[in-house]
Amino acid sequence: MTRSEEKPIRKLKQLPSQHVMAAGTPMCAGCGGLEGLNEASDVLGENTVFVNAAGCMTLLSVYPFTPFRGSFFYTAMASAPAGAQGIRDALDVLIAKGRLPAADDLQVVVLTGDGSAYGMGLSSTSGAIERDLDFLYICYDNEGYGNTGHQSSAATPLGARTATDRGGFHGRTKNLFDIWVAHQPSYVATAVASEPLDLVQKVQRAKQLSGPRLILMLAPCPTGWDYPPERSLEIGKLAVDTGAWPLKEYVDGQVRHTKLPKTRLPVERYLETQGRFAHLFEPQRDEATLRAIQAKIDADFAAIEGSTTAPD
Ligand SMILES: Cc1ncc(C[n+]2csc(CCOP(=O)(O)OP(=O)(O)O)c2C)c(N)n1
Ligand code: SF4
Predict the structure, then answer these.
(1) Which class for 15: exposed (0-12), middle (13-18), buried (19 or more C-beta within 10 A)?
(2) Does the global pTM surpass 0.85?
(3) Is it true that the peptide bond before 283 is cis, omega within 30 degrees of 0?
(4) Ligand 2 geometric centre to CA of 163 (Å)
(5) Among 93, 146, 244, 264, which is 20 to 30 Å from 258 by CA?
(6) Is 59 near ligand 2, meaning CB less than 6 Å away?
(7) Which residues of 173-209 are buried (b: 16+ CB within 10 A; e: fewer)?
(8) CATH number of 12-307
């Protein structure tokens, strides 16, 4: 279902010249998740209530300080979509009783890391989608339990060193995009802050729809991924250009790729930028793992060419 129409964002110049969120947060310098949230909140605007589960972004809004102009509601790690249900229901009741003008309605936006989105909160998310809850879920995916020291999560990629997999993660990485698509929600998209126009266009599309919607945002994380903070945007771009993070969206039952690399770079160009993959190169190359990472991307792209819609 579609909500009110806004002028489509075709250029970044259409966004406010200053971020809607205030500066000076306690997040790490160079946090890719924070940059993505800044871009998203410029589109969402002030009439937003963020429903957060414990993670790095919880520290954004610690009483009496907040960078948000709207509201922020903190829940337990497994329960953010249930918290969103309560808020959505309360808003609907107030509007139905005439105690809140419809024009003052709020977008209910769940904001969590991948630890919640892929794991601890997945049951709550699945139930919310099944109930057709009208909410947007923004997951900033730093591919680990960042706030507690970057333990492996269900989003951790093959070969990445984490606090719990010192020799590199060799489990199975969940595909959250496909898990959401299997629920047939209104909208699902991947994004990354280093592709800002693609990100804001997706947030705008999601904002104009109702029902369950996901923006799954890769969040380059200098602290957990072990690289200098000034490289976050470059690393986000390499994730897209090597195919490690394909940019796509699901809407009306179709998956569409919004930006395919013109010439896909070898994934090593992305891996070698981050200390979490250094053991794949030194003291000697781990050819088996490097080949497996590249083979997975090649297979994904072969499937893209075979079965999904390419960008306009
Ligand atoms: C039930 C529960 N278990 C563990 C914790 C401790 N904890 C707080 S933040 C966090 C990490 C969350 O990881 P993620 O969702 O990926 O977000 P990030 O920290 O990366 O932002 C954990 C495990 C908690 N708050 N609640
Ligand atoms: S640990 Fe990573 S995700 Fe968390 S605030 Fe720092 S850079 Fe951002």
Answers:
(1) middle
(2) yes
(3) yes
(4) 14
(5) 146
(6) no
(7) bbebbebbeeeebbbbbbbbbbbbbbbbbbbbbbbbb
(8) 3.40.50.970
* CA–CA separation, 273 and 258 (whole Å): 25
User: Which residues is 138 bridged to in the sheet?
Assistant: 111, 215
Count CB neighbours of 17 within 10 A.
6
Token pair in block for residue 126: 């699945």
Q: Please state, in angstroms and rounded to a whole number, the distance separating the CA atoms of residues 41 and 265.
A: 31
Atom of ligand 1 nearest to the CA of 117: 15
Nearest ligand for residue 219 CA: 2
Pocket test for ligand 2, best of 25, 31, 35, 62 (most atoms within 8 A of CB): 31
Location of structure tokens 């492996």: 152
Low-confidence ranges of the chain (pLDDT < 50): none
Give distance in angstroms: CA of 116 to centre of ligand 1: 7
Start-to-end Cα distance in the chain: 23
Q: Whose CA is nearest to atom 6 of ligand 2?
A: 28
Structure tokens at 113: 């890391």
Instruction: Give the CB-side neighbour count of residue 57, counting CA atoms within 13 A.
Output: 34
Q: Is the peptide bond before 64 cis (omega within 30 degrees of 0)?
A: yes
CA 257 to ligand 1 centroid distance, Å: 31
H, E, C per residue of 1-23: CECCCCCCCCCHHHCCCCCCCCC
Give the strand pairing for 71-75 and 107-113: unpaired
pLDDT for 182-240, tens place per residue? 999 999 999 999 999 999 999 999 999 999 999 999 999 999 999 999 999 999 999 99
Place of tokens 């000697």: 284
